[in-house]
Amino acid sequence: MAQLPSSLPNASAGSAQLTVQASKALQELANTKLLVGKLYTAQIDRVEGQKVHFSLAGKSMVAQTNLPLQAGTALQVKVTQTHPTVVLQAQVTKEPPQQMAAQTAYRQLLPNQMPVNQGLQQLVQLAQSPALPSVVQTGLTQLFEQLFRPSTQLTSQQLKQQLQGTGLFLENRLAQGRPPVATDFKAKLLQLSQLLLGFKDENAETEKLSKTLNQTLNRLTLQQLQAAQNPHTINIELPLHPESRLNPIEIDIRRQGSAASPSWEVMVDLTLPNGRLKAKVVYQREQLNAGLWSDTSALKQSLETQLPELRNQFQQAGLPLNHLFIAHQEPSPDQTAKKVALIDIHI
Hints:
- The protein is α+β, with helices and mostly antiparallel strands.
- It has 3 domains: 16-93, CATH 2.40.50; 99-230, no CATH class; 248-344, Transcription Regulator spoIIAA (2-Layer Sandwich).
- It has 9 helices and 13 strands.
- The protein has helices at 23-31, 97-109, 116-127, 134-145, 156-164, 170-175, 185-196, 204-229, 297-316; strands spanning 2-3, 15-20, 39-48, 51-56, 59-64, 74-81, 86-91, 249-257, 262-272, 275-284, 287-294, 321-326, 338-340.
- The strands form 2 sheets. It has a 7-stranded mixed beta barrel. A 6-stranded mixed β-sheet has the order 12-11-10-9-8-13, covered by helices on one side.
- It is flat, with a radius of gyration of 27 Å.
- 18% of the residues are buried.
């Protein structure tokens, strides 16, 4: 058994101790002829609560830890002692400059930002003020005209265009020497902010407008930072026309197993007028199993009555449905499976 302290006393020094105590493990490690002071790579195989299974020099070991380790990742360890016990030091690298810059940006932007559509609602209210210069009102009107109006006839190409215009890809396009798309939301907000500089401190309404624009822009920048650091979790707030509404849907896709025989898991979470609905669909060995769960009896009863129709829709779509049922407990994703992005997005 290897033991790992629950905290790192000095992250910059970068060490956390693993002490191999089991006699069998000691003998196996001794046979590998570990050298004091040398770095080795430990492969994290499995995490079960605070118990971590890892491989070192082809040998399987177990450690206790509170560190946020993840299966499938590698950890650099340094041998500091081989007798009478083998002691390893987990090397914690310093944060790269990009990571430090991102953390600084988080601290600066978080207190001064607002959700995109909340910002749009405030912009609509401010646009009605006669105190705003006419050229600013014209710019706001042009911004509102290009906002997303969702409909049941929305095509995949139209959705792609809306995603491209959210503002998350502005700097990426500029870095590639390409102009922003004509409807880029962030570019439009920046243009309005630049326009307001000519009317700085003119009246209270222009100050409110400038503040709202900056807070909405900060929200977009935060989303870009989050997407860059967590590419499997992309948070996109489509800028909606004030008269439009969308119900948010959370989709979690995971995969595990070999490339030749993978199993897939899809979690869908949304809130309907009569309750919250969660669905878990598992595709394995060319068979689908789907469970539906709700937090209200009314929605649960509605789901039960529609199960036959849903089964029929699976069959008509040619999907190999094995089992469709109402779950009695709220489903949760398999934490050992690897998350997969729904859309291939690079910001």
